[in-house]
Amino acid sequence: MVEAFIFDLDGVITDTAHYHYLAWEKLGNEIGIKIDEEFNETLKGISRLQSLEKILILGNKENDFTNEEKEKMANYKNSYYVSLIENITFKDVLPGILELLEKIRLNNIKIGLASASKNAVKVLNNLELTKYFNFIADAAICKNSKPAPDIFLMAAKGLNVNPINCIGIEDASAGIDAINDAKMYSVGVGDREILNKAKFVVDSTEKLKFEALIKLFEV
Ligand code: B16
Ligand code: MG
């Protein structure tokens, strides 16, 4: 029996990946590292500081900065990102998500959030979706970020459900690994080849249908 659906945020509920990209691109320009959209794909689901480390490696600058400087750079990126997400509204909810949340709630199944983003609460509020979530796992106090299962396990614990009775939904390969390691049923949204470890994949959020997901889980 499905006890809970646990959602990733960026790339599943709304498409903030582009804003993350614009913010990293701005920082990259300041420190002489060119970041393109293809490279940005590799940052999906990865924490802020891990993303910065990857960017520095890309520019062969991984040994050029102190931890304090790295923190300053991450804060600089985040300030710009936060200014970009100010303008998000309910119109930015991805297709099919509101219907899915409504059906899950109507069926008395719990809903959790397992995002790597420390801005998740702000984004959910701007989308006007907070009321659907029974528990929002806090990335700020999560020890190991995706692909570790910690944030999904934190969500299951907060919801008081058994992980094996949860469906996790993710757009990033690191997130699918996290769901699988948490022993949840993994559903991927996006490219089948990138998400090849997911138990079930759809190519867009509008194909996330409640009845089909419940059936898959119960087979
Ligand atoms: P922040 P998700 C992730 O969110 C993003 O995919 C990733 O690109 C970002 O670096 C990470 O959140 C941290 O975000 O800088 O706002 O704390 O996909 O796990 O919802
Ligand atoms: Mg994501």
Report on the structure:
By secondary structure, this protein is an alpha/beta fold. It contains nine helices and six strands. The chain has helices at 17-31, 37-41, 48-58, 67-85, 97-106, 120-127, 150-159, 173-181, 210-218, and strands spanning 4-7, 110-113, 135-136, 166-170, 185-189, 200-202. Strands 3-2-1-4-5-6 form a six-stranded parallel sheet, sandwiched between helices. β4 (166-170), α8 (173-181) and β5 form a beta-alpha-beta unit. α1 packs across α4 (67-85). The radius of gyration is 17 Å and the shape is globular. The model has no long low-confidence stretch (mean pLDDT 96).
Label this structure with key terms.
globular; binds magnesium ion; alpha/beta; 219 residues; binds 1,6-di-O-phosphono-beta-D-glucopyranose; six-stranded parallel β-sheet
Task: Summarize the structure in short.
This protein is of the alpha/beta class. Helices cover 44% and strands 11% of the residues.
From the structure provided, what is the oligomeric state, counting identical versus distinct chains? single chain
Q: Structural class, please?
A: alpha/beta
Mean pLDDT: 96
Describe the strand arrangement of the main beta sheet, using strand numbers.
3-2-1-4-5-6
Largest sheet: 6 strands, parallel
Beta fraction: 5-15%
Q: What's the helix count?
A: 9
Q: What would you call the shape?
A: globular
State the distance separating the first and last CA atoms.
11 Å
Number of strand elements: 6
Report helical residue fraction: 40-55%
Determine Rg (CA atoms, Å).
17 Å
Order of helices and strands: EHHHHHEHEHEHEEH
Please mark out the parts with pLDDT under 50 across 5 or more consecutive residues, or reply none. Answer: none
The hetero compounds bound to this protein are: 1,6-di-O-phosphono-beta-D-glucopyranose, magnesium ion
